[in-house]
Amino acid sequence: MLALNSTTHAKPIYVQSAQKSRLPARDNASVGLAELARILDPEASVPESLRDISFPVRRVRAGDFLLRSGAEFDAVYAVRCGFFKTLRVDEAGTEQVLAFPITGEMIGLDGIGTGKYMTDVVALDASTVIVIPFARLANLARDNAWLERLLYRLFGRELTCTQSLACALGLLPADARVATFLLDLSERFAQRGYSSSAFVLRMTRADIGSYLGIKLETVSRTLSGLVAAGLIEVYGKNIVLRDIPALRQCTSMPALKRGGDARFERRMAA
Amino acid sequence: MLALNSTTHAKPIYVQSAQKSRLPARDNASVGLAELARILDPEASVPESLRDISFPVRRVRAGDFLLRSGAEFDAVYAVRCGFFKTLRVDEAGTEQVLAFPITGEMIGLDGIGTGKYMTDVVALDASTVIVIPFARLANLARDNAWLERLLYRLFGRELTCTQSLACALGLLPADARVATFLLDLSERFAQRGYSSSAFVLRMTRADIGSYLGIKLETVSRTLSGLVAAGLIEVYGKNIVLRDIPALRQCTSMPALKRGGDARFERRMAA
DNA sequence: CGATGGTTTGAGGTCGGTCAAGTTAGGTGG
DNA sequence: CCACCTAACTTGACCGACCTCAAACCATCG
Questions:
Q1: If residue A84 lies in a helix (H) or strand (E), which one and from where to where?
Q2: Which residues does chain B have within 8 Å of residue A106's beta carbon, measured at their own beta carbons?
Q3: Which chain A residue has its CA at the smallest distance from B252's CA?
Q4: Is the C-beta atom of B9 closer than 7 angstroms to strand C?
């Protein structure tokens, strides 16, 4: 029954190569706004007037801090390639992961309100980001409706993502949170052209647990449960989604093992 | 020992009058940008050039919807006076309260990303809001650095508030969430000139529970526990904070009843 | 090859959920 | 003004999902 799993962490090395294959070959110290726009929003068409604008690139190694909370807000960052976690640390020293930005997503927008970054941002993998001085971005947006619109959209995206996290934390049981998390990652990878059914979790179980408001042991147990149910495969940090529709059901269903019949709720027409 | 509480819900009617005393006397159908700015940011000084700009006002009764999720995003709203809840309803019909906007706070910013409002917004009390068509706001902000800055700050405020909620849901036990909630309300009332130590919870226990990711019974029990500990007084929806420093400790301490000694954690210097 | 950080799995305890009963507050109509 | 009705709140008893503590396993890297 467990034949495949017996050679425990042997299998899907191909997953990694699938994600690595899109790494940029060149070592540009800066990139043009056209490429930036393509990364942030593939459908975007950049106006001619903005063709020669470019932004510097910054590289970070796995484990490095990209930002520290409390530092003065002066720029936002677009992830060109790589994997990050953003987190808040409270006075007691416990941390809450708030997001896992990946290629094509923005970092640092939360500093705008107070003038200081509110989160620590740590690279989970060797990564490169495009540095966008915010004052410059605001200047450009002032004269260009398309860029202005993009900026607003990025804000909104950030806001709704955080809202979704709060919803998950507020009303889902542990297994539904894990399923939601896997599906969310899957979709975001798919949007960036990676595989939506096989990927690598660059973060630790503790990071996942912090993000989902549960303990790392619960994360591990839940993943094992999903494996036992045949919905996913787990080889260490390598994940394969085997039954996405079923996972989607886990997202809102009471629980995993209770399974069984769907129960209908009548709703008064008053 | 319970002498004060024996006449159960008799006492602090004065709380309500304290909050009501600031209601606007006039029935203006529109307000100038100067007043809008004063509501949103008391320290702001409005440039001369924007003096004659004004926005319409909309009234809603308690229980009315100000916005429905899915409706087309076209305006944001500044609460002039009143009390709201914003919530998401998932496909199963369960709802998650995401915020309780009060006087001086913004509603509807979450629609910018997708072009549709993401939340339902319900008035918990008779309220008036200032209707700010977003296209118009963006136009004005384009030509006026001060307004642009204000708009960004409002976004940031929204974002960090939602992040704080996620943190509370992710790592605090129930009593700490309730204490945090009370203190947050207290501060926001204080900022608006209301009493920071006595106020009325216009929302139900179920709303509070939804916001905090716990059940209404737990809310009720926790409030009772805080009363027993002498930190607050509760007379139905009337709340009096009696020991704010102690409440603040509840915010990050393990729990309520365990009290006792502070335990220190050593942290490696690696 | 040992050391270290990450992961899995188990056993037991607890916080908060569920179910239920009883009380209070507020509004409506007689 | 009172009777009634409903929604909201409180409190209790029980239970289960998740946490805590602990041991063992595994992978990576010096």
A1: strand A84-89
A2: none
A3: A92
A4: yes
Residues of B in contact with A210 (CB under 8 A): 170-171
Tokens for A241, please give them.
């989604």
* A90: nearest CA partner in chain B: B252
Cβ contact B165–A167 (<8 Å): no
Residues B120/B69, Cβ–Cβ less than 8 Å: yes
Find tokens 């700015």 and name the residue. Answer: B37
Does residue B217 approach strand D to less than 7 Å at its CB?
yes
Q: Which residues of B touch A152 (CB under 8 A)?
A: 112-113, 138
Does nucleic acid strand D have an atom less than 7 angstroms from the CB of B242?
A: no
CB burial of B81-104 (b: ≥16 within 10 Å; e: otherwise) equals bbbbbbbbeeeeeebbbbbbbbbb
Question: What does the pLDDT read at residue B257?
Answer: 42
B/e letters for B41-67, b = 16+ CB within 10 Å, e = fewer, are eeebebeeebeeebbebeebeeeeebb
The Cα-based distances of A131 to A55, A79, B112, B240 in angstroms read 6, 9, 24, 48
**Lowest-confidence region among A75-79, A205-209, B203-207, B249-253:** B249-253
pLDDT exceeds cutoff 50 at B256: no
pLDDT at A253: 64
Our CA angle for A177, B155, A83, nearest 5°, is: 45
B206 touches chain A (CB under 8 A): no
* The pLDDT value given to residue A26: 53
B55-96 pLDDT, tens digit per residue, is 999 999 999 999 999 999 999 999 999 999 999 998 888 999
Q: Distance in angstroms, CA of B16 to C1' of D6?
A: 24
Q: Do A159 and B265 touch (CB under 8 A)?
A: no
Identify which of A6-15, A21-30, A103-112, B139-148 has the greatest average pLDDT. Answer: A103-112
Q: Is the pLDDT of residue A234 over 50?
A: yes
Residues A46, A33 contacting (CB under 8 angstroms): yes
Task: List Cβ neighbours of A163 (8 Å cut-off, separation of 6 or more).
Answer: B88, B98, B110, B118, B119, B162
